[in-house]
């Protein structure tokens, strides 16, 4: 009887420890002021995944994350991807697909996203010739509205991730991003702010968040090296990605605004070659940020 009691106590202790560990993963990068939750955009580890998929998942696990945003499935079928994520205690929340897939077959995207267990499916790049123009924005808005309706039928949300070229002037003091927001249905289309790609073209991230409350569902935590001058190209050297809090972004102000407008999930996306070293620095910053 005593042996059984000791075994039961040990089993319960193990379960409590495992629960505490899982709970810590869901709270990584947050504190009593900045609530998160914080996850990892797996694109950050693209170099690792390209060489060793297993090591990619293990690295995300070792860094302490519980939530992830997907950037492909590395040739795996959805059920295989789900099993692999579960093995490494990673909960998938969202993922990026090509714009043309949403344009030509949004239902296929919806089915795959549903099979992967996601809450959101989105677009991270808007195709355009030269500078983004009004016609391209209006076409994209139609595509996004339709895709959002299709995804909603599957219980999923659609989102668009800004890249900087959307902030070129349009008219009446507005930008093409303003036009995109105005022409998309808030019932079906939300946005993911990428902080680097917001400040790089000269936008005030906190002000933009508050300008369109209730339109932001997801967030990319990324910082721009001090001294780097931006533009509307949507591109800069990956060497300019630095650990959060060490760059140009006024993160305390930005995160305060993000929480105020109801951003639901935050993902670190670090494209630098120093990503594995920088992510712990970024998490440490987020766990201490106050306002």
Question: What features would you describe in this structure?
Answer:
With 291 residues, the chain is of the alpha/beta class. It has one domain (2-286): Divalent-metal-dependent TIM barrel enzymes (TIM Barrel), CATH 3.20.20.150. It is 44% helix and 15% strand. It has twelve helices and ten strands. An eight-stranded parallel barrel has the order 1-2-3-4-5-6-7-10, surrounded by four helices. The protein has a two-stranded antiparallel sheet with strand order 8-9. α6 packs across α7 (134-153), α7 (134-153) packs parallel to α8 and α10 (205-211) runs parallel beside α11 (251-260). The longest helix has 26 residues, at 2-27.
Task: Give descriptors for this structure.
12 helices; 291 residues; TIM Barrel; alpha/beta
- According to CATH, the homologous superfamily is Divalent-metal-dependent TIM barrel enzymes
What is the CATH third-level topology name? TIM Barrel
CATH architecture: Alpha-Beta Barrel
How many separate helices? 12
Structural class: alpha/beta
Question: In CATH, what is the class?
Answer: Alpha Beta
Per the principal axes of the C-alpha atoms, what is the gross shape? globular
Kindly state the mean pLDDT as a whole number?
A: 94
Estimate percent helicity: 40-55%
Strand order in the largest sheet: 1-2-3-4-5-6-7-10
């Amino acid at each position: 009887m005593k042996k059984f009691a000791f075994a039961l106590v040990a089993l319960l202790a193990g379960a409590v420890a495992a629960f505490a560990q899982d709970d810590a993963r869901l709270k990584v990068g947050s504190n009593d002021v900045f609530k998160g939750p914080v996850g990892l955009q797996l694109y950050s580890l693209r170099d690792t995944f390209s060489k060793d998929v297993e090591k990619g998942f293990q690295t995300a696990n070792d860094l302490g994350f519980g939530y992830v945003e997907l950037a492909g499935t590395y040739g795996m079928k959805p059920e295989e991807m789900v099993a692999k994520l579960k093995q490494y205690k990673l909960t998938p929340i969202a993922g990026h697909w090509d714009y043309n897939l949403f344009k030509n077959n949004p239902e296929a995207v919806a089915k795959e996203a549903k099979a992967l267990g996601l809450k959101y499916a989105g677009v991270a790049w808007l195709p355009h010739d030269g500078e983004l123009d009004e016609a391209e924005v209006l076409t994209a808005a139609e595509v996004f509205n339709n895709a959002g309706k299709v995804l909603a039928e599957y219980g999923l949300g659609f989102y668009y991730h800004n890249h900087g070229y959307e902030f070129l002037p349009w008219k009446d003091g507005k930008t093409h991003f303003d036009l995109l927001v105005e022409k998309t249905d808030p019932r079906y289309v939300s946005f993911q702010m990428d902080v680097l790609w917001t400040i790089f073209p000269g936008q005030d991230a906190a002000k933009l968040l508050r300008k369109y409350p209730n339109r932001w569902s997801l967030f990319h935590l990324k910082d721009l090296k001090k001294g780097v001058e931006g533009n509307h190209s949507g591109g800069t050297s990956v060497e300019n990605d630095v650990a959060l809090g060490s760059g140009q972004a006024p993160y305390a102000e930005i995160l305060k605004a993000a929480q105020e407008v109801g951003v639901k999930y935050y993902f670190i996306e670090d494209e630098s070659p120093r990503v594995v070293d920088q992510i712990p620095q970024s998490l440490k910053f987020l766990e201490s940020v106050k306002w």
